[in-house]
Specification:
Order of helices and strands: EEHEEEEEEHEEHE
Oligomer: single chain
Helix content: 10-25%
Radius of gyration: 21 Å
């Protein structure tokens, strides 16, 4: 299926300029506030109740580090703490840059930003999808030939709100590793080569 979506974004402009210590944030209180905000959106019919799993929320601290040339030291600050709520539709995980509802907090629990890149979903149309094997073949056609495939997952992709896409589309998320051992066998300076280089690629699940 392809779904038509909405989106919501609130910003104070302070999400990424704060300079706080982690101790200034109440992680548990912010998590509860984030859940309350999502429940309010559901009650006001601005978000589908059946796509949000509030039992799987995540608290993340965005850090910014500064290097002092004179002192030769690095000092890190927390610009914000945000709470992520993950989404799924028809039991299929929503992924991508907009695949979550995110609430940003400043110090003292102030809500300084909010992103909901899904909004209220409505069914748009049914589409025929390709098989996982066909998705892997398309990956190889894009140049990923000498690779190790670790997982192939059918998900819905939601792009970041800045891209202003009105739909969420089914895709295959393929994770794997470049086969660096092949290159190392032809390289005498093996110590400088990484053990593995991982990748994650979205392949459209529709023709």
């Amino acid at each position: 299926k392809i779904f038509k979506k909405g989106q919501m974004r609130y910003t104070t402009g302070e999400e990424f300029i704060g300079m706080h210590n982690k101790e200034e944030f109440n992680e548990q209180k912010n998590k509860e506030t984030g859940k309350e905000l999502i429940n309010k959106l559901v009650s006001e019919d601005l978000l589908n109740n059946d796509i949000v799993d509030l039992s799987k929320t995540e608290v993340v601290n965005d850090e910014t580090c500064q290097y002092s040339v004179s002192n030769k030291t690095i000092e890190c600050f927390v610009s914000n703490q945000h709470v992520n709520a993950y989404l799924s539709v028809d039991g299929i995980r929503i992924d991508g840059g907009g695949g979550k509802v995110r609430t940003y907090f400043g110090k003292d629990g102030e809500v300084i930003g909010f992103i909901n890149s899904v909004g209220k979903l409505s069914h748009f149309k049914k589409v025929k999808t390709i098989t996982p094997s066909e998705a892997i073949n398309q990956l190889k056609e894009k140049g990923y030939k000498d690779v190790i495939i670790n997982s192939v997952e059918f998900v819905y992709n939601v792009e970041s709100p800045e891209l202003k896409n009105d739909y969420i589309n089914p895709v295959y998320k393929i994770r794997g590793e470049f086969n660096v051992s092949t290159n190392q066998s032809n390289n005498t300076n093996k110590s400088q080569q990484p053990d593995k280089i991982e990748f994650g690629v979205f392949i459209p699940a529709t023709n």
